Amino acid sequence: MTKKTMPLHIKIIIGLVLGIIYSFISSSMGLNGFTADWIAPFGKIFIRMLKFIAVPLVLFSIISGVSGLKDMSKLGRLGVKTLAFYLATTVFAIATGLLLVNTINPGNFIEKDQRIKNRVKYELWLETVGLKSQDGMNILSDSKYAADLERLYTNDQMKELKNSINENPTKVADKLKAAKKQKSKGPLSFVIDMVPENIVMSVSNNKLMLQVIFFALFFGLTLAMLPEEKAGPLVKLVNSANEVFLKMVDLIMQGAPFFVFCLLAGVISKMANTPAEVLEIFKSLSTYSITVVIGLAFMIFLVYPILVKIFVKTVSYSRFFKNIAPAQFLAFSTSSSAATLPVTMECLEENMGVSKNVSSFVLPIGATVNMDGTSLYQAVAVVFLAQLHMIDLSIAQQLTIVTTATLASIGTAAVPSAGLVMMIIVLQSVGLNPAWIAIVFPVDRILDMCRTVVNVTGDATVSTIIAKSENELNMPDDVKV
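The structure assignment produced for this chain is given below.
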């Protein structure tokens, strides 16, 4: 009789819960400094280890999978299916976010006086940058709001407010610069960015994952075209290297519960000095946060399992989550699709039965271009910020959000808070102040953890569906978790 061991995802959950409990205890006892110096570093080490494995694992996995293809047309089918599914789920996620935020109207829950103040600052910003409001309303010159303005501001306060906006129109200069650079690129810039100038530089940078994928595909195709006697030794070397990196993932994941504890303890201890401050942060943005979480939960617990059930009838609801649970909890802890990628690949190959040919091709692309959770959150955040400033976005502007958020998600770095740069692009596309991202900064880290779970679950869903369509899904009888 074999001794039953606790499943890995249960151990990770325990680590998560203990990390949260510890962070509240440490902040109440004034131990945040100790946590930052002696506990949080282990979480950073964990993310670094996963990241340094991610790129070589993607490189060798794709080369191994592509070089073993007998039918070259299969690669083309995989590519078309992958992009089509990822694009469809991203657009659906954005539409879901827009539907929720327009139904719940989280920005309208803020008291009227605060919304008027926000609107005044917005109109002063429009004057500063030389733009006009697209909704036709102007509080500063509307007699209907004269009494409110007189009650909320003295003449000196209004002058001071105007001067402060003129002197400092934005507080997010670095992210604005990055967004401006992204926005100025041409429509095919993402295709150009896929082709590496220097593969050594690409391999050394997690943000250039698409370039690694391009090189690996090209290298694997070339290897497949060579005669067996010439390509055989190199194929064996690539396969062996791939197995080494997979084993490294296994070894690192043995310590995942402890590392996850350290990650959560470090993240929450940085948010505020006391538990009351942490709770106050969420209270001030509670309606917005709840709206985002509802949308993300809808994608995780309804949309993806239903898609899997439709296309892969043999996978039950509970089994789907058991199979990918370690990747989901790790995604929540790290807030990085790239760092989670090695574990996602392992979960799908060993637990779900997805072939390496499919997982090594579909998942790395998904970690880079499939940002369902991030796109949904951006749709909610942009409309929430508009509501907060008493701005009614038109149907055309909301369709612009769908288009811009979809395009902005392609090629965005699979690292924590990369979505904030994307949000600046979306805000600018509908004529809103990009500096408003500072308003949602306080809760972004926790929401980032939640939306990364959606991104990873979406990748796993699409990979499973494509594997089934290609007859590359061979689910084991005993689920290994």
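Interim note for the steering committee: The chain has a mean pLDDT of 82. The CA atoms of residues 146 and 258 lie 58 Å apart.
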